[in-house]
Design goal:
By secondary structure, this protein is of the alpha+beta class. It is 56% helix and 13% strand. Helix 1 runs parallel beside helix 5 and helix 4 runs antiparallel to helix 6.
């Protein structure tokens, strides 16, 4: 399929929440495959199946907030069979680094013990996971909630769920860290992550090019199988710990 790449000037973006709002609105357009807004550069790049005029895009973003503006940036319109992409490693570098740090710290926590304790390692890993991921969500809580409702089955119907979800992650991280009410904490983690993965699976299977909200709006991570693995790992670990504590 031929893909058209267009670049526009965009104004009025004051925070990452604005970026998320713009990108989600454009992703909802049938012919737009990808939309990336750069707040600092004042640039909007879209990939679509047909050319979009400055006026069309202006009407879409202006309807979100009158402060948003669109203007033609440069003559770079053109069709191509392939649109240059960042490498897989470049795209997922932030989440890979975070997972590596959490994995390393949780393994080092086993060092004083004579033998490896799998359950304790999982508890430490899940504590690090939920605390770290909730931290990034709290950096822009409203932006996360706005992005999360674009694919989560509960947040789509009840937008406040995005805010609640961030606090649940924080509470789970503290519970795992303190080894508090482990059976209850794992049941909650299993249910919450199982619900979360439904929206992720639906988005990936439908090949929707939307932003993954797992690290809030700090990083522009695309929804992919990486997100499925991330949620699936938490589901498997929480299930194993439920069996252990029963």
């Amino acid at each position: 399929m031929l893909v058209m790449k267009q670049t526009f000037e965009i104004g009025g973006l004051s925070c990452m929440s604005c970026v998320t709002k713009i990108q989600n609105a454009l992703h909802n357009q049938t012919d737009i495959q990808s939309a990336i807004a750069d707040k600092d550069a004042g640039r909007l790049v879209i990939e679509s199946n047909r050319p979009y005029s400055e006026q069309e895009l202006h009407e879409i973003v202006h309807a979100l907030d009158p402060k948003y503006t669109i203007a033609t940036r440069q003559k770079d319109l053109g069709f191509s069979d392939e649109v240059p992409k960042d490498s897989w490693l470049q795209k997922y570098k932030p989440i890979l680094l975070i997972f590596s740090f959490i994995l390393g710290v949780s393994l080092l926590a086993q060092y004083p013990f004579a033998s490896f304790d799998g359950m304790q390692w999982m508890r430490h890993f899940m504590a690090g996971f939920f605390l770290c991921f909730s931290f990034f969500k709290f950096l822009d809580l409203s932006g996360f909630a706005n992005s999360y409702k674009s694919y989560d089955i509960i947040a789509a119907q009840w937008p406040t769920w995005g805010y609640v979800y961030a606090f649940i992650e924080l509470a789970l991280g503290i519970a795992y860290l303190l080894s508090w009410q482990m059976l209850f904490a794992n049941i909650v983690a299993f249910i919450v992550m199982s619900i979360s993965i439904i929206g992720v699976l639906r988005s990936v299977l439908n090949k929707q090019k939307i932003q993954c909200a797992c690290l809030g709006t700090v990083f522009d991570l695309p929804m992919s199988t990486v997100t499925i693995i991330e949620d699936g790992l938490m589901i498997i670990m929480s299930a194993a710990m439920i069996v252990y504590y029963l």
